[in-house]
Design a protein that fits this description.
Blueprint (H helix, E strand, L loop, with lengths): L10 H24 L4 H22 L1 H11 L15 H9 L17 E2 L2 E2 L6 H4 L4 H6 L2 H33 L13
Antiparallel strand pairs: 1-2
Helix pairs in contact: 1-4, 2-7
Length: 187
């Protein structure tokens, strides 16, 4: 039945298309971004904010609970398709941060960016950083969860500022037709 349309889009194909666009933008405009007077300080602030978030999340036990849920219980949130929450701008941000982006899915059935020890990218979509499931709220004291959320606020604010700046620069340099930079989802 060749004439039937594929009603289940391939999430791997979509993320590979986004990766290709991000890599092309980096090849064309990476040096311009890195010599922009506004961006490098924001990149360093963002890197520090991610490190601060990771430290607080580690101390609170969110990473441990995610590991138990994913590896030991066979559940977990980082399932195949979740990678498509990652936009071209977030992928471009990773490249500007010096992150080597994966070219294939390493763990079957899991997010394209999941490796054996966790996420392989530094800049991640808000959903990946500021999502806490019922398990977290049951296992981790409320005061610690509040602290995690407070610290994540700086990281996510910087993520927004940087991706907005990237978009503004690209629109200025290439025109206002880059709608696909914020594309998420499966189609």
């Amino acid at each position: 039945m060749r004439y039937l349309r594929n009603l289940r889009p391939d999430p791997t194909r979509l993320i590979q298309e986004k990766l290709s666009v991000a890599e092309e933008l980096y090849a064309l405009w990476g040096e311009s971004f890195l010599s922009d007077p506004e961006l490098p300080p924001l990149l360093e602030d963002y890197r520090q904010a991610v490190e601060a978030s990771n430290q607080v999340m580690e101390e609170a036990g969110t990473f441990r609970e995610c590991y138990i849920c994913s590896v030991q219980d066979g559940q977990g949130c980082c399932k195949i398709g979740l990678e498509n929450e990652c936009t071209v701008l977030i992928l471009l941000l990773n490249l500007l941060l010096g992150v080597k982006l994966p070219q294939e899915r390493e763990v079957p059935g899991r997010c394209f960016f999941v490796g054996p020890t966790g996420c392989k990218i530094l800049a991640r979509p808000m959903l990946c950083r500021d999502y806490f499931c019922r398990r977290h709220y049951q296992k981790i004291p409320e005061a610690q969860m509040i602290r995690v959320t407070q610290v994540l606020n700086e990281e996510l604010t910087l993520l927004y500022r940087i991706t907005s700046l990237l978009r503004a620069r690209l629109e200025f340099w290439t025109g206002d037709f880059l709608q696909e930079l914020d594309l998420t989802g499966y189609t």
